[in-house]
Fold these 3 entries.
Entry 1:
Amino acid sequence: MKVDFSFMELVAKPATSNFESKSLEDLTQAMYRSAIHTFGWPIAPVVFSAGHEPKPIQGGIEAHFKDPGHREYWSLKRTGEFYFLGELFENNRRPTHVFIDTRTNRITEAFLRIGKLYALLGVPNGEPIFLMIRHGNIKGKILGAGNTSRIFPVERKANVDEVKSEFALPLKEMSDTESLKKNVHKAVIDLSEMFQMFNPDKGSFTDPIVEAFLVGRII
């Protein structure tokens, strides 16, 4: 899907499970119940209002949002594939920037949201989940932070237009605290290194953000 704004894209699929026996209402309820509201507007929200409610497609469901600040699309197929593309939160706060703390929170949310979704749909804890996280249309963006107490004395610009991280991990590791911290840090490093090789520390930067998110806090 091509868009003209900076975005986060997610593609996920269980290794073997599918949802062919599930009704479209089952898929809708699983999407609704697995949404995580810690950051505010969740990744792949389910909104039951005219023009935004999930709609049936061949073999699954989808939803579009075209409101300013919430331009996004998601789908869930009976084959097991989940897809999401949404504009960055930063686009409406400071469109010249990518906030590395906000990206850490959103990547954390992505793992938890997808893990919860597949657990609700009956995927076994040990089954591998394939997940791709991509940030796009970011070339020339400046690295910054949503928390104004985090200061970047050197201006660092993205040297690439997109960054992709790929994972294959058991479902249980999507939410296990130590596994989550490890995987979030990997995805954050994949992204941050494209900003003139910036390398945030796991113990003092990404881990505290993940730990706070797990108890419902944004820091």
Note: Strands lie at 7-14, 55-57, 60-67, 70-77, 82-87, 97-99, 128-136, 142-144, 162-170.
Entry 2:
Amino acid sequence: MLAGLYNICNSEPPSQKGGSFLYQVKHFLIMAKKTVPHFNSLQEFYPYYLQEHLNPVSRRLHFTGTALVMLVLILAVVTQTWWLLWFIPLVGYGFAWVGHAFFERNKPATFTYPFYSLASDFLLFRDLLIGKEKFKHLR
């Protein structure tokens, strides 16, 4: 399916390249093939994670997704409505992947380092909340 989507994106007329949705998807698929350096610890990984999350819109999307994950988890536990837990990956990954595909234009680290990436999402959330990191990063 992804190969078919990639072929559709390649058939896009040159006059539309740069801003169209298909061009954005094509670029995301190309970036998904980018190799990620090897990391042995979360301490090594987190600076790389921050470099992959410099766009202010992407940072806001990640922050929103992480906040919604915590809200859904709390709501599910307090109300004992366990089917709400199915929404956790949807809100967490949904917001983050939109940030990567359309604003950062890079590959989410989730695919290579799922646990470091998840932990880093919460570290970034905390750092944004306490002001250690800024929503608008100076490049």
Note: Residues 56-79 form the longest helix (24 residues).
Entry 3:
Amino acid sequence: MTKDEFDRHFTRFMDRVKTTRDSGQKEYAQQEDEVFADFIWEADTIGNTPLEVMYTFLLKHIRGVGSYIQGHKSQRESVHGRLEDICVYISLMDAYITESAEVKEVNPKPKKFTRKELNLNKMNV
């Protein structure tokens, strides 16, 4: 593969990553004013942090890629989809860490969201 071919592949791949992220936002967070809503809810439910939840989901996809590399080809999700999800979780984690650092500079206590603020009542949870 030449550099030009890779550049085209990379652009298509990142377009798929953005599509995956956008559809995940609609499906899980179901709102645009808090992209971390689902992770905050999950973290609160199981007693972890949103970052730990994201990391757990990231590792699930990394294990799936590992299974693919070891020869397990029939998975519920294609290896391409898992690679896209890995990029999404890494970017979400980066954004969360960045936002957390910015918030801590202004307010050392993290904000606790209510179910209403996270629109969880609309999600029937």
Note: Residues 3-123 form one domain.
